[in-house]
Amino acid sequence: MTDPKKPQDEADFVDDYTPALLAQASQLISGEFHVIVQANGFTISDWRVLSSLSGGKALSIGELAQISVTKQPTVTRLLDRMEAQGYVKRIPHDTDRRITLVRITPRGQKLTSSLIEQARMHEDEVLAPLGKKKADELRATLKLLIDLHRPAN
């Protein structure tokens, strides 16, 4: 029952508030896949870091933290362990000695390739009810929102 003293738009605020909707959708959909991640012996943080690097492009630790939605000190600790396991390699930046880049190794890529296939299948299942056109529009809209709000490096 709504409070008669509250305007309707306040009572239903989170039902139509885009950041809340994005957070809920992300939590629900990611949570479904995290069950698979953990069943494959990965922590969620390991998966986020390795999958962020899976394209083969070297990323700075700051970029990796942002893309993987993981705090930078946590990423640094994960990278220490992953580098010791041979899953990632740190490399110096060409022109800025303050920046360390990270690249996935062939061993790390092999470790994540099966899980990436499963992630793509999960995504297909999630987006199937929308149809290809709406799914493509959703991705494009999300990428645009990210680009518009990504902090400058």
What can you see in these coordinates?
The chain has a single domain, classed as Winged helix-like DNA-binding domain superfamily/Winged helix DNA-binding domain (Arc Repressor Mutant, subunit A, Orthogonal Bundle). The protein contains 8 helices and 3 strands, in the order ααααβααββαα. Helix 3 packs across helix 7, helix 4 crosses helix 5 and helix 5 packs across helix 6. Strand 2 and strand 3 form a beta hairpin. The protein has 153 residues and is mainly α. 14% of the residues are buried. The protein has a 3-stranded antiparallel sheet with strand order 1-3-2.
Which labels suit this protein?
single chain; 153 residues; mainly alpha; Arc Repressor Mutant, subunit A; 3-stranded antiparallel beta sheet; globular; WH-like_DNA-bd_sf; transcription; DNA-binding
Helix-strand blueprint:
Elements (H helix, E strand, L loop, with lengths): L7 H4 L1 H4 L1 H22 L4 H10 L5 E2 H8 L3 H13 L3 E5 L7 E5 L1 H22 L3 H19 L4
Antiparallel strand pairs: 1-3, 2-3
Give a quick account of the main beta sheet: strands, pairing sense, barrel closure: 3 strands, antiparallel
The level-1 CATH class: Mainly Alpha
User: What's the total helix number?
Assistant: 8
Portion in helices = 55-70%
Q: Please indicate the percent range of residues in DSSP E strands (runs of 2 or more).
A: 5-15%
> How many beta-strand runs?
3
pLDDT < 50 runs, ≥5 residues: none
Keywords: DNA-binding, Transcription, Transcription regulation
Pfam families: MarR_2
InterPro entries: HTH_MarR-typ, MarR/SlyA-like, Tscrpt_reg_MarR-type_CS, WH-like_DNA-bd_sf, WH_DNA-bd_sf
Domain HTH marR-type: 15-147
